[in-house]
Amino acid sequence: MSVKILIPTPLRPYAEKNESVQFDVRTVGEALDLLTGRFAELRQHLYADDGRLRSFVNVYVNDEDIRFLQKEKTPLREGDIVSIIPSIAGGLL
Amino acid sequence: MLRLHDELAQRIRSHGEVCYPHECCGALLGRGDGPEREIVDLLPLENRHGESPRSRFAVSPEDFRRAERFARERGLDLVGWYHSHPDHPALPSEFDRAHAWPWYSYVIVSVAQGRAGQISAWRLDDNRSRFTPDRLETAERSAA
Ligand SMILES: [Zn+2]
Predict the structure, then answer these.
(1) CA angle, corner A44, sides to B33 and A64, nearest 5?
(2) Which segments of chain B have a pLDDT < 50?
(3) Average confidence (pLDDT) per 10 residues, chain A, 93 residues
(4) Which residue among A52, B61, B90, B118 is least crowded, i.e. fewest CB within 10 A of its CB?
């Protein structure tokens, strides 16, 4: 299944400045594995030390958060778009 | 160096005043991959922090994607974020640092008693340990 992964601007410096990459994969987990295999520096920004996706990183398949699908086991179909979305937050205290 | 036209700085101040005593937030759209960056447009967003909007802000993933689309349609990049500090100085907090990403520009406006004051700009170091102040260059937009 050929799917596109969109890389947000702050992570592009760790992905040879690519805005997106295309992979032939069956699940979100496979897509992320290939992505971090190709761009090793991305790994530390996507995964915590325990190997799980960082809580500040959201992964969407088309318009759906994978937390509400089957997480990394979410199956992909031809033409799906996987977006990596950094959580944006802050506060004065 | 972050170039922020007067008109855009004024829009950030106004947004901070309208949202007071809550924090406001929005996306910065512009150009510049390296140390020099120019903000060309803004996308004001709703503060999605439900519990403590007076001292926290949050951008929903939907708004994030909207901001990226908005930038792309204008041939710009989503280069950072702005937010306000109601009745606090325009300095990033520890909470700001813990939730920030490298590469982005972070603009903070202080709003005291409903009146916007100082604006500052920051970038997180690559190792995420601290914010470094970015020199803000405010100028009137050239006619060109
Ligand atoms: Zn803040």
Answers:
(1) 80
(2) 144
(3) 93 94 97 96 91 92 96 97 96 83
(4) A52
What distance lies between CA B5 and its chain's CA centroid? 13
Domain, as residue range, for A73:
2-86
Nearest to A65 among B49, B61, B106 (CB): B61
pTM of the model: 0.92
Number of domains in chain A: 1
Q: Which amino acid is located at A36 in the chain?
A: T
B53 Cβ under 8 Å from any chain A Cβ: no
Considering only alpha carbons, which residue of chain B is nearest residue A88? B59
Domain B2-139 has CATH 3.40.140.10: yes
- Asked whether A59 and A32 are in contact (CB, 8 A), the reply is yes
Contact B100 A90 (CB under 8 A): yes
Cα B14 to averaged position of ligand 1 atoms, centre (Å): 17
